[in-house]
Amino acid sequence: MEALLLGVGLLLGAYVLVYYNLVKAPPCRGLASLRGRTAVVTGANSGIGKMTALELARRGARVVLACRSRERGEAAAFDLRQESGNNEVIFMTLDLASLASVRAFATVFLSSEPRLDILIHNAGISSCGRTREPFNLLLRVNHIGPFLLTHLLLPRLKTSAPSRVVVVSSAAHRRGRLDFTRLDRPVVGWRQELRAYADSKLANVLFARELATQLEGTGVTCYAAHPGPVNSELFLRHVPGWLRPLLRPLAWLVLRAPRGGAQTPLYCALQEGIEPLSGRYFANCHVEEVLPVARDDRAAHRLWEASRKLAGLGPGEDAEFDEDSQPEDPGTPSSPSSPHPEGPTASELYPSPQSSTGRSTVTRRIPVKDELEPQAC
């Protein structure tokens, strides 16, 4: 009996150590008030995205849930309005697998929303499921769609600067190896899906790095965020039905709840003083070094050019990055029942030494800064 109790005690002790060191997420304590700011969160109808949107809404932001399913998106918006007490939570349709849908979303958003302070690319897939497309569906949803959306929304991000772009990545990027000769080939079989998922997460990290270079001096900063091991729909979505009852208790024990997974993306979106770390990769609310493959500036630029082609961007759509280009007038809100307070000043939003004036883009290659260590959560 004593041996049994000792064994149970050791197991409980080991679990507590694992939980507090690997599972439990440090809380984000960024900006307390986001009144007058607007945020877009993709894939916000469930899981990490919904918890991220909830925290932004609780801080007073106007939050746009960009989701594929109207039914689930509207239901999530209703839930978040009820839970946060913030009526400025709305749904807009966005299917990242469809470039036409991405463009349609951008058109509607730019015509109705005068600000965009935070863009969080949370939506993603880990498997193609039963869908068969003539392109790499994982790369399309996890990288190409977000790449195009960022490109189309940059005028609004710039006029709202200082603003931020957060790309939710994963530790799986460490297994990624981009093959530019077959970047968009269809994915068949679970082995190819595992590889394609890791590649798409590596693309996320390289995208944030190159975007930081492209937007140097504009007041728009960007970050790649790893949410940690999270018990979300993404984890169980493609698990066989008979296996789910066995995995759910295990997932509850060893994986973070979606609220915990939202902390690092929120940190990247809200934490003051991390602007000099634009382009870096964050996990557990602090910056982390990545493998050489994930900080290869040449590969990042090559991916940028390949992504432009896969996103269908033509030469005439380079204006967002041209030095002398001026963003279009943001217009007015679409609904008088949802007024937008006048936007805050730069010092009110992100008090930092970085100036939001001077919109010119530096065209030379700029190494991503790493001299500042942000404060812990």
Automatic annotation (TrEMBL):
Domain of life: Eukaryota
GO molecular function, one term: oxidoreductase activity
InterPro entries: NAD(P)-bd_dom_sf (IPR036291), SDR_fam (IPR002347)
Stretches the record annotates as Disordered: 312-377
Keywords carried by this UniProt record: NAD, NADP, Oxidoreductase, Secreted, Signal
Regions that span the bilayer: none
GO cellular component: a single term: extracellular region
Record's keyword annotation contains Oxidoreductase: yes
Pfam families xrefs: adh_short
Residue ranges with Basic and acidic residues bias: 367-377
UniProt subcellular location: Secreted
CDD domains documented for this protein: retinol-DH_like_SDR_c_like
SUPFAM superfamilies the record matches: NAD(P)-binding Rossmann-fold domains
Acidic residues composition bias: residue spans: 317-327
Comp. bias regions, Polar residues: 352-363
Assigned protein family: Belongs to the short-chain dehydrogenases/reductases (SDR) family.
Biological function: Putative oxidoreductase.
PANTHER family: DEHYDROGENASE_REDUCTASE SDR FAMILY MEMBER 13, PHOSPHATIDYLINOSITOL-GLYCAN BIOSYNTHESIS CLASS F PROTEIN-RELATED
Protein name: Dehydrogenase/reductase SDR family member 13
Lineage: Eukaryota, Metazoa, Chordata, Craniata, Vertebrata
Gene: DHRS13
